[in-house]
Design a protein that fits this description.
Blueprint: E1 7-10, H1 14-25, E2 31-33, E3 45-48, H2 50-58, H3 62-67, E4 70-71, E5 74-79, E6 85-90, E7 101-104, H4 105-119, E8 122-124, E9 129-133, E10 140-143, E11 146-149, E12 152-155, H5 162-168, E13 174-186, E14 194-200, E15 203-210, E16 215-223, E17 234-235, H6 238-244, H7 250-257, E18 263-269, E19 277-278, E20 281-283, H8 298-315, H9 318-346, H10 351-367, H11 371-374, H12 377-380
Parallel strand pairs: 1-2, 1-12, 2-8, 5-14, 12-20
Antiparallel strand pairs: 3-7, 4-7, 5-6, 9-10, 10-11, 13-16, 13-18, 14-15, 15-16, 17-18, 19-20
Helix pairs in contact: 1-4, 1-8, 2-8, 8-9
């Protein structure tokens, strides 16, 4: 049925480009509407874990994805003030060694854009959607070019999704009282291929290499009472960032001293959408299940969503397919969102709770070194392509 269906994907991010590729590979020619005049991504890193790499490989993008990224060897949690390692997950000891990849976001977007175009998707830039209307009629989009209709509307339009609002009404997110700075720096010397998380009281900092070690990616999070806008494009005074981490190790402070214009965004907790589909529309990625960035799974969930949605649409009529897609994805994405929220608390412990938690992790690492990795088998061993 898909080859006779007019499919419109709203948003040319990771979710939208991946689902467009998967659908085009099945014989349809989806339209992808993107409001920007060009597909660009701000400089930032992201982690694609084995569950996400399984999708890229199934789409025939495995070699290109590996060439555009580098393998991560593990994750280390480190006391930000003393430098003592709290725990470590060694990816090289896992069956999926080599499938934990570190990407510059722009490189992954470029790979997915090319894949979508090569597969036959029609990517339309500079097409702003001002309103989405759902009801008895086909989905209607009021765009900068006029009124458009489509048989199937896929909302891959992110945190502020108009498709989500059309399906669920307007919802007010909860400010977590956390803000995050992000930046990339030219590397000075070799950077270990490890995701390092420096922990402190009510703050933490994540760093890892990008582009073969030529860049250092930094994401720094602080708890605060002041509100910050939920945006990817705000900038902040670098002095505020340096003051927030002035008690951390000299090497951490040295990185922050190099940052001249950090991006800043407020972290908000959104509920998983109640309704993922209806009236010819369906949600995916951040539009369906926004997550805090403390489990590195936002992009991976978008990749999984894309594969499962395209698979279900190929198997059965669209109304049944959308219900099967939500049923297949709801429990897993809800669990991931909850785990990321829990990490937000665990990273920022203070006082006695912090001492007890860190001691327990160190002891577990000494006497049961495989325990930290085993804890996440439910996450990384999952392969949506085998469903």
């Amino acid at each position: 049925m898909l080859d006779r269906c007019n499919v419109t994907v709203l948003g040319a991010g990771i979710a939208g480009l991946t689902v467009a590729t998967a659908l085009a590979n099945q014989g349809t020619r989806p339209r992808v509407l993107e409001q920007a005049p060009a597909i660009r991504e701000v400089g930032a890193g992201l982690q694609i874990t084995p569950n996400g790499m399984a999708i890229l490989r199934a789409l025939g993008l495995g070699p290109a994805a590996e060439a555009a990224s580098q393998a991560a060897e593990g994750v280390e949690l480190i006391d930000g003030e003393t430098g003592q390692i709290v725990t470590r997950i060694d990816f090289l000891k896992l069956a999926q060694a080599g499938m934990f990849r570190l990407f510059h976001r722009a490189d992954l977007i470029a790979l997915l854009e090319q894949a979508a175009r090569d597969a036959g998707a029609d990517i339309i830039l500079n097409r702003r959607v001002n309103a989405v209307q759902l009801g008895e009629h086909l989905p209607q989009l009021q765009t900068s070019q006029g009124l458009e209709t489509t048989d199937l509307l896929i909302g891959a339009d992110g945190l502020h999704s108009q498709v989500r609002s059309a399906l669920n009404g307007n919802e007010a997110p909860f400010f977590t009282h956390q803000v995050a700075w992000r930046a990339t720096l030219p590397a000075q010397g070799a950077i270990p291929a490890v995701v390092r998380v420096y922990l402190g009281t009510r703050r933490h900092l994540v760093t890892y290499p990008l582009r073969g070690g030529r860049l250092r990616n930094i994401v720094a999070v602080e708890e605060r009472t002041r509100w910050a806008e939920e945006s990817w494009s705000l900038t902040d005074d670098p002095l505020a960032l340096r003051i927030a981490f002035e008690s951390f190790l000299p090497e951490v402070r040295g990185w922050l001293d190099q940052i001249e214009r950090p991006n800043l965004w407020g972290l908000f907790r959104h509920p998983v959408a109640r309704h993922w589909h209806g009236n010819g529309a369906v949600l995916m990625g951040d539009a369906a299940h926004p997550t805090l960035p403390f489990l590195a799974q936002g992009a991976n969930m978008a990749l999984e969503d894309a594969w499962v949605l395209a698979r279900e649409l190929a198997r059965r009529p669209s109304s049944d397919a959308l219900a099967a897609y939500q049923q297949a994805r709801l429990a897993r994405t809800t669990r991931i969102v909850a785990a990321a929220t829990a990490n937000a608390r665990n990273y920022h412990l203070s006082g006695l709770k912090r001492d007890i938690a860190h001691t327990a992790l160190r002891l577990a690492g000494r006497f049961a070194p495989n325990a930290p990795a085993a804890k996440f088998r439910w996450l990384y061993d999952y392969d949506a392509t085998k469903g």
